[in-house]
Amino acid sequence: MYKPFASPFGRYTFWLGLPLLLIAGGPLIESPFALVDRLGHFPLQAAAIAIPLALVAFLRRKRPGAGWSLVVTLGAFFLNGAWLLPYLPVAAEPAHDQKNALKVVQLNVLRVNKSTKAVTDWIRKENPDVLVVQEIDSEWRTALADIQDLFQHRVLVERRDDFGIAVFSKHRVLSRHTAVLPFINVPALFLVLDFKGVSVRLATMHAPPPMGDVQIAARRGALDQIESWVKLDPKSPAIVAADLNITPYTAVWRRFINVTGLVDPRRGRGFLTTWPAFVPDPFRIPIDHILHNKAFRTVSLKTGDWLGSDHLALVAVVELYNK
Q1: Collapsing DSSP states into helix, strand and coil, what is residue 164?
Q2: Strand partners, 317
Q3: Residues 121-164: pLDDT tens digits?
Q4: Residue 63 to residue 302: CA distance in whole angstroms
Q5: By C-alpha distance, which of 87, 112, 67, 71 is closest to 27?
Q6: Are 274 and 314 in contact (CB under 8 A)?
Q7: Burial of 35 by CB count in 10 Å (0-12 exposed, 13-18 middle, 19+ buried)?
Q8: 52, CA 20 to 30 Å: which among 19, 173, 220, 269?
Q9: Separation between Cα atoms, residue 121 and residue 309, nearest integer Å
């Protein structure tokens, strides 16, 4: 019998490690097919699972098949780990000018979440300048009325499904435009805010999850809309705060960042995973994003508390330093 399969240990470890190697290839491929697309989102989980498998293979390296198992599991760890390197937390948070700082919160509240008071109490504690919310329906519109004293300006697109969105702002809304994502007819918001005399562009949307090929095409269309929006006025200060249902390890994400020139503040600050909120950190993925162009720099980035939603909030402080 071929050596990797000469013992149950060799068989099980080898076949457990092989899918982890396959996941490492996922971020190389930009695919229109949902099954292929989903491979690219889990290098963190694959690397985490590969560690104990490699350790067991090393401790049992004299057993038949352990050598091959060690090669496969270590390969899975290092190849998946390569996609994670840019996000390891090494960046020091810079000193900043409070006068030019803007605190932005991105939060998918989960439409069926009943922990409304926990959400509003947390928002009041964080006290952001701009709050972007997904999955707003009539019940959530009523619940969030409790924080209306914090924000003088509000734009809501309320829906009965999971794609309602809202922006709450302490800064005046100079203009607003509601667009529709392709294939699935859900809204995206594009606003201009007056931040101390500077026009700041803000985009938000809830892109569909990659459950099928139509949703993959719709998510690609959502990214295309942001790309077109950035290109309309590339020098104006711009922020994207959205649930994009895509992780930063994927090929489609790298192309999106390269085309738009937007800055991903996770780089050098950690994975800051947001979904699903109810599982331990190594098993969550970062699908909520706050991005900006080079008119801003990121001062800090963190995730929020678990508030009954399947998403954690993302909280960024950005500084307008080209004012």
Answers
A1: coil
A2: 103, 300
A3: 999 999 999 999 999 999 999 999 999 999 999 999 999 999 99
A4: 45
A5: 87
A6: yes
A7: exposed
A8: 269
A9: 14
